[in-house]
Structures are given as C-alpha cells and as structure tokens.
Amino acid sequence: MELMHRNLIEGSEVQALADALKINSTLTTLDLQNNSIGDSGVQTLSIAESGAQALAEALKTNATLTTLYLQNNLIGSNGSQALFQALKMNSSLTTLDLWGNSIGDNGAQALSEILKMNSTLTTLFLQNKLVGDNGVQALSEGLQINSTLTTLDLWCNSVTDKGAMVLCEVSHVDTN
C-alpha cells in the first residue's frame, strides 16, 4: 500500500490505518514516505516525535508486514525508540526505511539493543539524519551479535573516519 508523497494523512485516516494494521493478514508493504504526517496524526499512527505508540502496537501483533517505508515523517529519537521496541516482538518485518528522520545517537542506541535480539530485519535505511560516531559505536555493538541484518545504509549522516573504522571492524566479525 502506497500512501506516499504528501498525502497529508491525518486524524481519522491515521486511526483507521493503525487499526487496520493490527488485524491485517495480507498487506506486506506499507509506504508512508514524505507525508510529514506531523503532530495531528502522530498521536494515532505515531509518525513523528510525539510518539510511535499506535504503530508500534500494531507492529507487535502484525505477522504479515515485511516492508515499512517511513521516509521524511518527522520521527525523532523518542518516536524511533518506541518503534524499535516494537521490533522486539515483531516476527515479520525485514525492511525498515527511516530515511530523513532524526533518530540521532539516542535512537541508534535503542536500535542497537533491538538488533541484538531481532532475527528478521535484513535491511535498514538510516540515511540523512543525525547519526554520528556515538550512534555508530552503539550500532556496532548490536551488529556484532545480530546475524540477519545484511544492509545498513548510513548515507549522509555525521559519521567521521573514526565511526567508519568502527563499522569496518564490525564487518569483519564472524557471527558463526
């Protein structure tokens, strides 16, 4: 389902979408990129800094959604942490795209903890927002344990040579 590129989803539409995700048994891809859903729709679907509770709750029980695109939806550190917590219980999501959301180093720390236990996520896009060397250091700790993530895209973040070296070291760790 594609609801992308400035559809200005809000209010009752967002609530209906969150409710549908909880009982969905066929949808495998949800594309909400570039909606800037903002605070009015955030309380329901939780796509922005105000929280990610409804979406996170839906992800905990949803067993069919494999791909979730959330590009440019004003998700910050707190919202991303709630979303990442849902990944503890989700057993179907393989691709998560958070391009252009400000998860920051705190969000990367929360994600690192999830990567240590999540066994389904294979592709993660964190481009273009505020992950620096501290965030990369945190992610590397999760990546050392995780054996399923094969693609991590950190294009256009605040990662220096120091952070890049940390990632290079992790890429040589044998998880078997």
From TrEMBL:
Domain of life: Eukaryota
GO biological process: nucleocytoplasmic transport
Single GO cellular component term: nucleus
Entry keyword set: GTPase activation, Leucine-rich repeat, Repeat
Pfam families given in the database record: LRR_6 (PF13516)
Coiled coil feature spans: none
Molecular function in Gene Ontology: GTPase activator activity; small GTPase binding
SUPFAM superfamilies referenced in this protein's UniProt entry, alphabetically: RNI-like (SSF52047)
InterPro entries: Leu-rich_rpt, LRR_dom_sf, RanGap
Name of the protein: Uncharacterized protein
